[in-house]
């Protein structure tokens, strides 16, 4: 039974689950975790889902990313699983579980922690500059100047990996216009890209680039190679806007920095913005889905149940993740940094809105060219006006 996973440092949790599953269910069936490199994960998944060699269980982000597979009839609905196992259904935060639905039908079971995008910073670099983490947008702009004068890149940015740049636009659009702006776009109203909040966000991006907020070489920095995270850990960058998994990444690659040098704050409010500064963007979590033609359906569903087991939740917490289970807070005392776990969990609990990452909420036919346009904007190959026009033309 093949279990496809996006390859990263968090996979130790899923590998442990596979090992426990095999110990319980072998030799009737053997689960094998197949780690697929992040750079090509979605492309490889699309290819294999159109073949006779589909995985039995696979990692995904829910939302628009799995809609094509639902429409093609290649995913197994999971409503019966949850109806037959109310303990599993009630184990997860309802809003998170809902993110694994398409048109009201459940197709995903949460497999990782909640993943809001946060603003991480290097405490030592800030202390040396006599600076405080930003609370307002004016603070952000002041810090760009402070760190440039200190010879430190203000913000690490893996510009060779466009979804990292997308995070900036997601928050800026939300802070300027509120979650309704992207909700309109996600519903299929392409003219939503022409909302004034999108144009203001694009103008703000260009302003940041021209101020040198991301340095001169961000377009050649790759996220999957760990370069941006290394810049932060090594003190060559002061801040890094990234998903909450950045903590686990640093814990694996730079444990001393993760334990004492990594700071974190929410994304600040924008002056005159209509969006609530408590709103979040990112991924409520990741999901496991089951292919409809899997010869191991019964065992695949049994494997999905393991994500709510106490051992699984404990492993997530120990790895620096914040589980999406209703009892997650009971385990925070065992987290590498209980304060960070509580900070993140409280942000998610009190957020009026949690907008799914654009490239996961939109179908691949829109998400891929959108990434191209985002890179063009950041690289100075497009203007804010041309950027909004190009996105409005996507279908």
From TrEMBL:
It comes from the Bacteria. Gene3D superfamilies: Periplasmic binding protein-like II (3.40.190.10). Coiled coil: none annotated. InterPro entries: Bact_solute-bd_prot1, SBP. It holds the Pfam family SBP_bac_1. PANTHER family: ARABINOSE-BINDING PROTEIN-RELATED (PTHR43649), BLR3389 PROTEIN (PTHR43649:SF14). This is Sugar-binding protein.
């Amino acid at each position: 039974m093949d279990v496809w996973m996006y390859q990263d440092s968090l996979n130790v949790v899923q590998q442990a689950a596979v090992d426990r599953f095999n110990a319980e269910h072998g030799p009737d069936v053997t689960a094998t975790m197949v780690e697929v490199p992040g750079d090509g994960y979605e492309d490889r998944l699309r290819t294999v889902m159109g073949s006779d060699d589909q995985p039995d269980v696979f990692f995904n982000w829910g939302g628009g990313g799995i809609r094509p597979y639902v429409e093609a009839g290649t995913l197994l609905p999971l409503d019966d699983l949850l109806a037959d196992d109310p303990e599993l259904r009630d184990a997860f935060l309802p809003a998170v579980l809902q993110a694994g639905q398409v048109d009201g039908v459940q197709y995903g079971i949460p497999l990782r922690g909640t993943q809001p995008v946060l603003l991480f910073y290097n405490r030592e670099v800030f202390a040396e500059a006599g600076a405080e983490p930003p609370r307002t947008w004016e603070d952000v702009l002041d810090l760009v100047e402070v760190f440039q004068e200190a010879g430190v890149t203000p913000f690490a940015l893996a510009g060779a990996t466009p979804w990292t740049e997308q995070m900036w636009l997601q928050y800026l659009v939300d802070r300027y216009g509120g979650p309704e702006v992207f909700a309109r776009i996600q519903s299929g109203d392409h003219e939503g890209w022409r909302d004034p909040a999108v144009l203001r966000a694009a103008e703000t991006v260009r302003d940041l680039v021209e101020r040198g907020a991301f340095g001169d070489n961000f377009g050649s920095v790759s996220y999957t190679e760990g370069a941006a995270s290394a810049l932060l850990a090594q003190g060559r960058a002061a801040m890094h806007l990234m998903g909450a998994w950045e903590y686990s990444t640093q814990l694996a690659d730079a444990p001393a920095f993760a334990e004492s040098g990594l700071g974190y704050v929410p994304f600040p409010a924008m002056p005159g913005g209509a969006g609530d500064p408590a709103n979040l963007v990112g991924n409520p979590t990741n999901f496991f889905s089951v292919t409809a033609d899997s010869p191991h359906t019964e065992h695949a569903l049994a494997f999905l149940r393991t994500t709510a087991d106490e051992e699984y939740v404990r492993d997530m917490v120990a790895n620096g993740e914040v589980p999406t289970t209703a009892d997650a807070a009971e385990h925070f005392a065992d987290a590498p940094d209980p304060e960070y776990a509580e900070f993140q969990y409280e942000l998610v609990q009190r957020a009026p809105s949690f907008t799914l990452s654009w490239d996961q909420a939109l179908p691949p036919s829109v998400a891929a060219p959108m990434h191209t346009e985002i890179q063009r904007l950041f690289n100075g190959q497009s203007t804010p006006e041309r950027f909004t026009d190009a996105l409005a033309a996507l279908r």
